[in-house]
Amino acid sequence: MSPEDPAVVSRRIARESLTKDDPTGWFEELYAAAENGQAVVPWDRGAANALLTDWIETAGPDGTGKTALVVGAGTGWDAELVADLGYATTAFDISPSAVEAAKRAHPDSKAEYVVADLLDPPAEWHRAFDLVVEIYTVQALPISLQANATKQVGEQVRPGGTLLVIASARPEGLADDDVEGPPWPLTRAAVEAFALDDLRLIQLDETPHPTEPSLFRWRAEYLRD
Ligand SMILES: C[S@@+](CC[C@H](N)C(=O)[O-])C[C@H]1O[C@@H](n2cnc3c(N)ncnc32)[C@H](O)[C@@H]1O
């Protein structure tokens, strides 16, 4: 019997976990299965996100003496880029296997990789980071969890700090019930919803996906007053 297609296994793992009403359990199952070659991690690009790279080239942030938090860091490519800017970088993921994979992929990393849950983050992170980077994590959670996840992302930004969010854009006119996640891409309103309390949206770009131009991605930058 030939082994099952890893892409099919990945989808099955997600579907079964969501059916059991365990919306985050499948990430660990997926990373663990990928470790022994039985599944693929579909979002693992082996490189930093191009919209993050572009933001860094344009904004030129200097992380010297500053702190950064990378949300849902997966195998760590974005965290490595941020840490190389000089930020004391904490990169977290709910999946212990993802954290181990990140450490293995970047043995000389300057970033600290830790297991943590965005929906219940460590209290000491509250408003503690000069830069928070969130890429594709909130959209990986069912819509019913996204408001809390969105709030928690913003709550880790310190006064004067920056939040950068990169997410897939939900096609116009698609209702919540019609989105067959994962992922559950974000509406413009969902992106604007990161601007809670004194976190202000200062830049919002919508760019076509490089290989699928009918799909769009948000890149949003916020500043906490
Ligand atoms: C779609 S992947 C994106 C990974 C990475 N940010 C990227 O862009 O390649 C979502 C990541 O968030 C992690 N994740 C999901 N729910 C989480 C939670 N509640 N807390 C922390 N990490 C979470 C998953 O394990 C996964 O690595």
Walk me through what this model shows:
The chain is of the alpha/beta class. It has two domains: 1-42, no CATH class; 44-224, Vaccinia Virus protein VP39 (Rossmann fold, 3-Layer(aba) Sandwich), CATH 3.40.50.150. It is built from seven helices and seven strands. The chain has helices spanning 6-19, 25-35, 50-59, 77-84, 96-105, 143-155, 188-192, and strands at 67-71, 88-93, 112-115, 129-135, 157-168, 199-208, 216-224. A seven-stranded mixed sheet has the order 3-2-1-4-5-7-6. The termini are far apart. S-adenosylmethionine binds at residues 24, 27, 43, 49, 72-74, 92-95, 98, 117-119, 135-137, 140-141. InterPro entries: Methyltransf_25 (IPR041698), SAM-dependent_MTases_sf (IPR029063). Residues 69-161 form the Methyltransferase domain.
CATH topology of the largest domain: Rossmann fold
Count, helices: 7
CATH homologous superfamily grouping of the largest domain: Vaccinia Virus protein VP39
In whole angstroms, the N-to-C terminal distance is 60 Å
Q: Largest sheet, order of strands side by side?
A: 3-2-1-4-5-7-6
Total strand count, please?
7
> What is the CATH C level class of the largest domain, in words?
Alpha Beta
What class, by secondary structure content?
alpha/beta
Mean pLDDT: 95
How many domains make up the coordinates? 2
Low-confidence stretches: none
How would a textbook summarize the main sheet?
Answer: 7 strands, mixed
- CATH-derived architecture of the largest domain: 3-Layer(aba) Sandwich
Q: What's the overall geometry? A: globular
Residues in helix, %: 25-40%
**What is the radius of gyration computed over CA atoms, rounded to a whole number of angstroms?**
17 Å
Bound molecules: S-adenosylmethionine
* Secondary-structure element order, N to C: HHHEHEHEEHEHEE
Strand content: 15-25%
GO molecular function, one term: methyltransferase activity
Organism: Kribbella amoyensis
Domain Methyltransferase: 69-161
Keywords: Methyltransferase, S-adenosyl-L-methionine, Transferase
